[in-house]
Amino acid sequence: MSKSLDNINEQAIEDVINKLQNFEETVVKKEESDIEPEELNEEQTKSEEQENLVLFSDLGLDEDVLRAIKDLGFETPSPIQERSIGPLLDGHDILGQAQTGTGKTAAFGLPLLSRVDRKATHTQILILAPTRELAIQVAEACQSFAKYIPHFNVLPIYGGASYEVQVKALNKGAQVVVGTPGRVMDMIKRGKLKLDKLSSLVLDEADEMLRMGFIEDVEWIIEQCPEDRQIALFSATMPDVIKRVAKQYLNSPIEVKIASKTTTATTVRQRYWLVSGLHKIDALTRLLEVEPYDALIIFTRTKTEAEELTNRLLARGHSCEALHGDIPQKIREKTIERLKNGQLDVLVATDVAARGLDVDRITHVVNYDIPYDPESYVHRIGRTGRAGRTGDAILFVSPKDRRMLRLIEHTTKQPIEPMKMPTNQDINKHRVMEFKKKLLASLADDDLGQYQELIAEILAEGTVDAVDLCAALAKMVKGGEPLFIDESQPEPKQSSIEELGGSRRDKAKKVPSSEPVPLKDFPDIKMERYRVAVGYKDGVKPGQIVGAIANEGDIESQYIGNIDIYETFATVDLPEGMPADTMDILKKARVCGRALEIRKYYADRPSFGGREGRRNRERFDDNSSKERRNHPVRREGERSNSKKSNASHDNGSQKRSRNKKNSLGRGVPFNF
Known about the structure:
Distance between the termini: 105 Å
CATH architecture of the largest domain: 3-Layer(aba) Sandwich
Number of domains: 4
């Protein structure tokens, strides 16, 4: 009985060994083998990913546009780009839903620019954006996409900037106009922006335009466009009003909704480092020196950045290789093979290289550049912590990436904890430990006889101390490179997103000061602090407040000062002496579905009782006649019969008082 069991066990062991050998051959030769069904499915999935990999060159874009994309270093389209470019090239209307930061600008910009009539100079594409900042950003992106299109012009138009300059540029001809709804309306009404030959209209961040009260203005602009125009509407969310606009004005739109893949392995520890006070390359060098990794992948956004980072790491003594779409397939396979067998420990890669990459040795993933969307982040960090193993994911975050960090946390439903960058002392301790290991490891070498005889002779002479001799040998081994970092050098800042902007809860409890912060660029302009009736509970962001004040009040954003957001309200610093009619307009302006109800802010609202109270009441009055008399800008042609607009502001609509003359000559940023 026992003998038969032994035979069975031997046979079972032999079968297992054969299967393991077959599996190793499969990894090396990439041939089919007898592996477990679960592993076979994973391999099939990886091969399908490789086969289904779509490049920008596969989407039918114009050759000049493709050249520009290549210069920018982009290889593969994001999901929203892949699904939108084809329909827009074919002339279809698009209703796209995707989060901010997923590449929507390229999703509509690349195909529409590919269709531009190069011989014509009239406006062919109109892009509406909720804020001037976004309008400028979109215009710059379009200019970079069209760098090889001859005689191409793109023009951003927005409130607060000179009408004359924008009108002059429109008269010269701009195939693409990017603007905020208020200024676009004005230009159309003045007859300066003609839409009779418009071919495409883009509504970017439509839900933001709704929150800022522009939706009726947007509808008015749509009605001025030709009936056969193409419309692309993009929005992060789809409120009922946006759905109604889409249903009313879009012609059989193709709906593109990008659902993020949010599954991340629980075995992966996720951390972020806030880029502050230390260059990213210096921070990365510290991590590579101290983090206990076996193999590590560093992700960049573009292949150009991958090459540059690889060269910089090589110059700092780190052995690494780049992996991106421009590298021939055979070389890429050899690089991955070296990573698998331990000949290479650090790989600098783009997202295209991550598809289907499965190397057991990878213990760390570093997001040197934050990805465009949460789905890419999930895919990146999925290269570690596979098959139940543990892994580490590190994300470099700049202050401007805070929103994307929170979006990644929200969509993955997992917190990403702040990490501490190794200090100078940490690095020195680590270097001592590593140097000791190398020295002790060399003692195990059998071939030390010749050196032992030489050292014995030197010590026998009695002129050299044994410790001094060992120190000299150790220094010689280091080759002149210092063993320690100078600990007197400045340490990297250790901060988190919450510390950078202040905790929402702490800020909500804090009583804000009534003292305004001077403008950096215009310190001589006296500022006042105002209160607006929107806060954290309304989901407001600083950009929305800036957009509403700039577009509604016709105030240049450079004169909009410090903004602090609290639970039920926010404070904003504006130049002293706001005219009453501007105040009236801003009171009715809407952000996040609420009227701003702007008024001057005082930290301690004064008592209005008695004689002192009457003085305080006069000081607290927003429209104090004394302040208007002392306003440093004389109002040219002030209307004796001040005609207040009877415009309805239902559903967030504000018809603006635009018959104003620009009076910036004395340095005060209000238009009259």
